[in-house]
Predict the structure of Adenylyl-sulfate kinase.
Amino acid sequence: MDAIQGAYEPISLPTCLSFRTSLRKVRSIKFSGGGWLGNSTRLRGGYHDIPRFSVRVKAAMPEDARISLVNGHTETGAGKSVRDLSNIGNSTNIRWHDCPVRKVDRQELLQQKGCVIWITGLSGSGKSTLACALSRSLHSRGKLTYVLDGDNVRHGLNRDLSFNPEDRAENIRRIGEVAKLFADAGLICIASLISPFRKDRAACRALLPEGDFIEKSFVKVSALFSSIAWRSNH
Ligand SMILES: Nc1ncnc2c1ncn2[C@@H]1O[C@H](COP(=O)(O)OS(=O)(=O)O)[C@@H](OP(=O)(O)O)[C@H]1O
Ligand SMILES: Nc1ncnc2c1ncn2[C@@H]1O[C@H](COP(=O)(O)OP(=O)(O)O)[C@@H](O)[C@H]1O
């Protein structure tokens, strides 16, 4: 797997990079290419054991600059292009704005951990039933939840999408991004989608810190729970 999984937040070129990495520990980030002299930035606090971080670059970064992550003595990431990591194209106007009220503050207020529970399974397998039962159960325990159901989202945000593989991927990508925002808001977001392709679900998982994306294949894992939930209402 690539050490650098792609842009985590919008990157405001040329001064700010923020991304996720699959490396458990990253010691420094190395810049090269574009006439740069292989600058290496040591991350404060030694090793970082979080899967994402931001780095501010003071000098202007050339378009063909490449970055690598250095993990101890090993250099990984194979010089990913900064431009490839950006999801805002050539714009230099879009910048990431941090808000002083952070996820931890919202979690503290709500007394819960924001996360995504992703329920996947075939059409008619009981995903929506399980999502609603779970939401009701958590709600009754004072937990704030929100269900993102494939059917419902296709009535609005994703009404322009069909069921071909490309549109399904886009459907899942958008819902993954919305789910990430809900989790960041401190909610327990329950996404209920067919989401048939593992790579699309993996991309959604990669948007969140480790442990904050809980995936359940409805048919295999949750059938029993669903049966109980369903029977208790029928
Ligand atoms: N091929 C095809 N043609 C017509 N309608 C279809 C098709 N596939 C799915 N559906 C219906 O769309 C509902 C939502 O699907 P999803 O958004 O969860 O699918 S996906 O994740 O994008 O694969 C889905 O809801 P559920 O039955 O609740 O899964 C279906 O009602
Ligand atoms: N555990 C269960 N046992 C029997 N029927 C169920 C169960 N869970 C859901 N159902 C029924 O199966 C149908 C499909 O459920 P639904 O939750 O809409 O599935 P999905 O969201 O995967 O399409 C509904 O009629 C629902 O009432």
